[in-house]
Amino acid sequence: MIFNKDTAEKTAEFLLQINAIKLNPRNPFTWASGWKSPIYCDNRLILSFPAVRNYVRDEFSKNIEKQFGKPDVIAGVATGAIGIGMLVAESLGLPFVYVRPEPKKHGRQNQVEGFLQKGQNVVVVEDLISTGSSSLLAVEALREAGANIKGMAAIFTYGFEVAEENFKNAHIDLFTLSNYQNLLNLAVAKRYITEEEEQTLREWNVSPSTWTIEV
Length: 215
What we know:
It contains seven helices and ten strands. By secondary structure, the chain is an alpha/beta fold. The chain is globular and about 50 Å long.
């Protein structure tokens, strides 16, 4: 679910402007999973554009507090959400921790890095939601560390049904600054893509694991 429509449209426009999101229905990208995709999203680029990162920080800060109440701690999911999560924590005047994909192999073997007390209320910040699996592994690690998860806030989601099911089953409320639907609407309105390309992008979104481009 998006925080609100105005934010969703403005965020989508920023992501397209800085090429954090690239749309290429005729020459698809290949994801690490092997999926063929007409879209590629790299929200880490946001950190290189001060005006955009400040906008994302401010929208997160305002809407997290409005939606979840002010938490005790902000947690970023490594590695993509460490930078923006830290900016949000700084803006809200809150402690920050981040969650590794798995525990370190040496030292204290931490998976959650930073100071976190049992029972503290935590909002998790993520950069991108695809299936939600890696994001929810971070939630699980925080819960094991004793955190009370108030919810998750992400920059962008592809809106896959499997992600919605995964978050529902994990009992985690997910809110995003923007999503796939708002992105496509804006991309057509601003002529980043044609209506025919929009149709291809919508077909991919229905079944991304089996989608192939017609030759």
